[in-house]
Every structure is written in structure tokens, then in C-alpha cells.
Amino acid sequence: MRRREFLKAAAVTGALAGAVQGEESKETEAKPLTIGTEPVITGSFFDLTHVNIFDAAYWTDTCRFWGADNWRALMRDMRGIGIDTAICVSTASWGRPLFPGYERTVGLPVKFGCEDPLRVCVDEAETLGMTIFLGVGFRGRVSQVRDYAGMEPPWPEVWFTWNRALAEALVEQYGARKNFGGLYMAYEMDFEPYQIDLYEKFMSEYLRPALGNVKVLASPGNLGDHPNLAEAPGQLKRAGIDIVAPQDYGGRTGSIDEALALVRKNADALRQAGPALRANGIEVWANCEAFNLEPNPSGRSHCVPGSMERIRQQLALQAPVADKLICYQYQGIMNRKTDLVMIGHPDTQKLYDAYLAYLEERNRA
After folding, report:
1. What is the pLDDT of residue 214?
2. CA-CA distance, 270 to 319, in Å (whole number)?
3. Which of 104, 185, 315, 347 has its Cβ near the most Cβ atoms within 10 Å?
4. pLDDT digits (tens, 9 = 90+) for 286-298
């Protein structure tokens, strides 16, 4: 069997196994788990190392030096509060893979505290029955591509071929796993026409021919900001997206009222566009931002824990219109602090405790 035929078969095998697992266990269904009458977070992003050292200042430096036991503990703790889907944003950083073994096709790997943290996370997630998505489609520098640029055309060919090689490496390693959910498109778009064109070109000319029908998840900007919402379902279909999880922008302002106004915009857009999205075969998730932004003296910001009062309302507003609620993110922002997972802002444990109390309250209801 030729290599690309194998990759397509591996992706299909993983998807079928995930479907069977979903039939056997309610934990893996792509719908929000509810406790009482309130929804809960069932998916979260995580990163091996973050592309933005300011956003992730409270965790990424420490995680870079973690051993295998630390990564396993993070996965266990996520699963312990009901998260059944883990989305690894970063499988590469600035054109270098975050896993070994593909030096010729993808590049020299970044060094970590353990040899292959990605494999550790996928293995532990599989043991725990967690679905995992793996990031591709980076816009960080690869050859001529500008550093974290907006990706306006013209697009260098190397961006497409390198991202294809990265995706092939991921599917070759993990596509046949029963917990492989698919790929996550790490390049976040805001529905500019050129961004739709970029997605379509990458998916139709590079990714799909190489990998077949592997599922692709995207988390674009707030859907309420779309200039013509009626066009969104067709654009996402054309762009080859199977699951869309718009960011609710709940973490972009220090005012709870202003934050919730942005969340309502996203929820209203999901309510309006949801039927057409689903009719086009696109699952509709919502990405709840669990953070606030803490200013840095340089003019940048760090992600710090948001308030549970606000997050509770984010969940309530979006649960009726989304098939699943995910968040950015458990790691560093709302994780339990232990000897193995000692990361995050001083208030990270407080948010974990508040969210745990919220779950217990729903259980008693």
C-alpha cells in the first residue's frame, strides 16, 4: 500500500473506531454533557508549547520542561472534571515539529523535558477514553511566510507542502487510534474572503488528496462579527470544515457586561446559522473563553483566570445553540494545582475550585 493510501485508511479507521466508541459510551458523544439543567465544559484546548509567550506566560515555560508523568497528570485532571475532548493546538512551533521522527519531511524537533510529549498525551488520552484533535495549518514562520502574519496572498507553496507533511506525519502516527478525532486548523480565520480561499486551497488541493476524509475542526473568531451571516455555512462547507467552534470573546474585556454582550452575539449567530451549518454536515460547537487579559508592561497581555460568575453565564447562553461546549483552556487557566501540575496564575486554583463547586451544585439540583 502506498504511503498516502495508508494515511487515508488510517484516518478512516480512526474515525470509525471513534464512532463505535461513541455508541458504546455517552462520554464521547459530540453533545454537551448536562448536570441538572446547566451545561458543562466537555472539551478543552491544551498546548505543548505556546506560539505566544505573552498569552501563556503563566504556564508554557514550565510545561516545556515537563516529564512524561506531568503530561499524564494533566490529561487525567482534565478527564477528572468531565473533559472528554482534548485539542492540542501546537504540534509544531515556528516551522519545527514538537515530536521526533520526521526530520526529513517536517524538520528538526523542538526539545522538551521528555522525548515525545505529544505521544504521551495521545496515549494517556486513549487510556482515559478521551477524543483528541491535533493541530495543523500554522501561520507561524515557514520559509517566506511572515511571522504570525495575517496570511494575505500571495501564498508561498512551502506553506501548503509543509503543513501537508505535518498532517501526514500526525495521521501516520495516530490516525488509526480509536481516540483520534481529527485535525485542528490552528490558523484562526475571521471570515475574510482571502482566508476562506486559503482554507479551500489547502484543504482541496493538499490535505484531502493526501488524507481523505479525516475530520477537521476550526475555531474562528466570534460568529456574530461575520459581515454576512447567511454566507457562513456555505463558506465553511467550501473551506472543508467539519466542526466549527467559534470563539465567544468572553475573555476580551474586563467588564462582565461587555463580555457577555460579545458572548450573546456569538450565541445569536449560532442560533441563526446553526440549522444551515448542520444541513451542510457541519457540527456546531462553542468555544468559551475562560480567561481574562492581564496587561504586561510591554503593552502585551497575559491570559489569567476569568470569573466563574461570567463563565457560568457564557455556558448558559451558548448551551441551547451548540452541540458541544469547549473552552480555552484548562491548562494554565483553570487547572488543579498539584505537585505534578504546578502551573498557572495564583488564581488558577480558585477558578478550578469554583468550577468544581459549580459541577457539584448541578449534581445536587
Report:
1. 96
2. 10
3. 185
4. 999 999 999 999 9
Residue carrying the nine cell digits 493546538: 89
DSSP one-letter string for 264-293 = HHHHHHHHHHHHHHHHTT-EEEEEEE-EEE
DSSP 179-241: TEEEEEE-S-----HHHHHHHHHHIIIIIHHHH-S--EEE--S-GGG-SSGGGHHHHHHHTT-
Whole-prediction pTM value? Answer: 0.89
Q: Specify whether the CB–CB gap between 305 and 353 falls below 8 A.
A: no
Preceding amide of 272 cis, omega within 30: no
**Which residue type sits at 49?**
T
DSSP string, 130-195: -EEEEEE---S--TTSPTT---PSSPPHHHHHHHHHHHHHHHHHHTTSTTEEEEEE-S-----HHH
| C-beta separation of 148 from 51 below 8 A | yes
Instruction: Report CA-CA distances (Å) from 131 to 44, 49, 83, 136.
Output: 11, 20, 10, 17
Find out whether 145 and 204 touch, Cβ atoms under 8 Å. Answer: no
Distance CA 211, CA 165 (A): 11
CA distance 15 to 21: 10
Element (H or E) spanning 350, and its range?
Answer: helix 348-364
Residue 116 has which C-alpha cell? 515525545
pLDDT in tens, 314-323: 999 999 999 9
Q: To which residue does cell 504586561 refer?
A: 296
Q: Which stretches of the chain score pLDDT less than 70?
A: 1-38, 139-150
The per-residue pLDDT for 39 is: 86
**312 phi, psi to nearest 5 deg:** -55, -45
Number of neighbouring beta carbons within 10 Å of residue 179: 23
